[in-house]
Design goal:
The complex is a heterodimer of chains A (458) and B (60). With 458 residues, chain A is α/β, with parallel strands linked by helices. Helix content of chain A is 41%, strand content 13%. In chain A, strands 1-3-2-4-6-5-10-11-9-7-8 form an eleven-stranded mixed β-sheet, with helices on both faces. In chain A, 61% of the residues are buried. Chain B has a domain of 37 residues. Chain B starts with a helix and ends in a 21-residue tail after the last helix. Classes of the chains: A alpha/beta (458), B mainly alpha (60). Chains A and B meet through helix 10, helix 11 and helix 12 of A and helix 1, helix 2 and helix 3 of B.
Chain lengths: 458, 60
């Protein structure tokens, strides 16, 4: 059941929040031992909240559009009274004193927090087996990785453990699990969703975004979590989007720029990925969109800027722990986070100067088209136990460009590989034009039926 | 980056403990940073400004 369906059924008193919660907890009990989605399942509090929601609804008091709908929270995002471990021994005993703003907004809309979800350690690196908790696994095939760093968020939504989850995205960490797990993941425009209460990785690249099974759920969730926060220095005073209202308008008349060089020449994709992208473009063309070729700087250039900025900013956060407690990090995060010690101040400024030019290049591309279409992952997700294959395929992606530029970017299923794993596509919009992005994504979802495709093992 | 330079920079950054316990990880981190910096194409226009721009009073 999607979030929209659950919210509608609960509001109409056709579904009890307690029944929904009981069914999900049973499913979690059955499937989570295979998938490692949760770091902390807050079972009792979730049950109590479901009972309270039921009483409120019966009493005629409706909190908001997500009243009684369960949500999972990536474990770098604070939930009052629960640990925020960042999947790391470093913060194993860290208890959050207050909800992050995005969690507070979800609760204000009536959502029920189920618990805290697996991530790559401090939202960087990849699946690791040397941390206090095991890595999440892909519900399409638990021998394969689910993407990351919002790995529990992606795996849990795809497995139907909860209809929606929060993730964070600094170099693609919402869109990677969305791609690997065949769901919908949005990195909103930089500043649209408050980061207050979210453990930082890289201040100028960090975004918070929703992961859901359907485009409509994603739009509804963004409606709830978007908004200006004067206490987040990166927050933007943008107008409210009403993102869920224009979903069914179709793509007739829209101009879509296809960035083919990302997957054809910059980082040549698996042939199945390339074919899936052409199929998406062809389908949208048949539905009335104009498809044009568009060029922006190369993936290698975007990746270099992203890495220099990320490494520099992350070092300022993790330097003290890396000096005193290097052995309390897993190896992947330790290596990635120490890199900032070897980047100079001049390198950081050069990357920041190049970044502004890249923002202008993407803005230029979006002057002549409404939305960009490009690859997300260049490969289907590989086996989780093949460290070499993960190291090879994780950087083969086209997500970091839009952390560099701040434009909104949505990843979703483009098809299913011959190996039975999700293939993905990415849509990118003008800043604060998430509504147009959702409109295109919804049309593809409707045409391809991606919202109806679920992991067979589940 | 040669080994001596890596060790010098690591010590300057206060990573003596990591250098003693995880020398291969320190070397890998230095290599990652070097790769990123090498691939960075700096703007040729001397007037190119960084992002984000200075915004006096914002957030104060």
């Amino acid at each position: 059941m999607t979030a929209v369906e659950a919210a509608r059924a609960i509001a109409a008193r056709e579904l009890s929040p307690v029944e929904l919660m009981t069914a999900l907890l049973e499913r979690i009990g059955r499937l989570d031992p295979k998938l490692n989605v949760f770091i902390r399942l807050d079972r009792d509090a979730a049950r109590d909240a479901a009972k309270a929601a039921e009483a409120e609804i019966v009493g005629g008091r409706v909190r908001g559009p997500l009243h009684g709908v369960p949500v999972g929270i990536k474990d770098i995002i604070d939930v009052a009274g629960l640990p925020t471990t960042c999947h790391s021994k470093i913060l194993a005993d860290n208890i959050a004193v207050a909800d992050a703003v995005c969690v507070s907004r979800l609760r204000g809309a009536g959502a029920i927090v189920l618990g805290k979800l697996s991530t790559h350690e401090f939202a960087i690196g990849g699946p690791s087996f040397d941390l206090p908790w095991p890595p999440a696994r892909n519900p399409w095939n638990p021998d394969h990785h689910p993407g990351g760093s919002s790995s529990g968020s992606g795996a849990g939504v795809a497995a139907g453990l909860f209809p929606m989850a929060l993730g964070s995205d600094t170099g693609g960490s919402v869109r990677n699990p969305a791609s690997a797990c065949g769901i919908v993941g949005l990195k909103p425009t930089y500043g649209l969703v408050s980061r207050r209460g979210v453990f930082p990785l890289s201040f100028t690249l960090d975004h918070v975004g929703p992961l859901t099974r359907t485009v409509a759920d994603n739009a509804l969730m963004l409606d709830v979590i978007a908004g200006y926060d004067p206490l987040d220095p990166g927050s933007a005073a943008a107008p409210a989007g009403h993102y869920a209202s224009g979903l069914e308008r179709g793509v007739r008349g829209l101009r879509i720029g296809f960035i083919r060089h990302f997957h054809e020449t910059d980082t040549p994709a698996d042939p199945e990925v390339g074919a899936a992208l052409e199929h998406v473009a062809g389908t949208l063309h048949r539905l009335g969109a104009e498809i044009r070729n568009v060029r922006v700087p190369s993936l290698e250039e975007f990746a270099a800027v992203n890495r220099v900025i990320l490494q520099s900013e992350a070092w300022t956060i993790h330097g003290p722990w890396l000096r005193e407690r290097p052995g309390d990090y897993g190896q992947l995060a330790r290596r990635r986070l120490m890199a900032g010690a070897f980047v100079g101040a001049g390198d950081y400024v050069q990357a920041s100067r190049r970044r502004l030019q890249m923002i202008e290049a993407v803005e230029d591309a979006l002057r002549d088209v409404d939305v960009l279409l490009c690859a997300s992952a260049m490969d289907p997700p590989c086996r989780i136990d093949k460290a070499d294959e993960i190291a090879r395929t994780y950087p083969r992606q086209a997500r970091t460009p839009f952390n560099v530029t701040g434009h909104p970017a949505l990843a979703m299923m483009a098809g299913i590989s011959t190996g039975g794993l999700p293939l993905s596509v990415q849509f990118v919009g003008r800043c604060f034009a998430e509504a147009t992005l959702f409109r295109v994504a919804r049309e593809w979802e409707r045409a391809a039926g991606t919202g109806e495709k679920h992991p067979p093992v589940m | 980056m040669d080994k001596a330079t890596v060790e010098l920079l690591a010590c300057r950054a206060g990573l003596e403990k990591a250098l003693a316990e995880f020398p291969e990880d320190v070397a890998a981190a230095a290599e990652q940073a070097g790769r990123s910096v090498t691939r960075l194409k700096a703007p040729t226009d001397p007037r190119a400004e960084p992002w984000p721009p200075m915004r006096a009073g914002a957030g104060l």
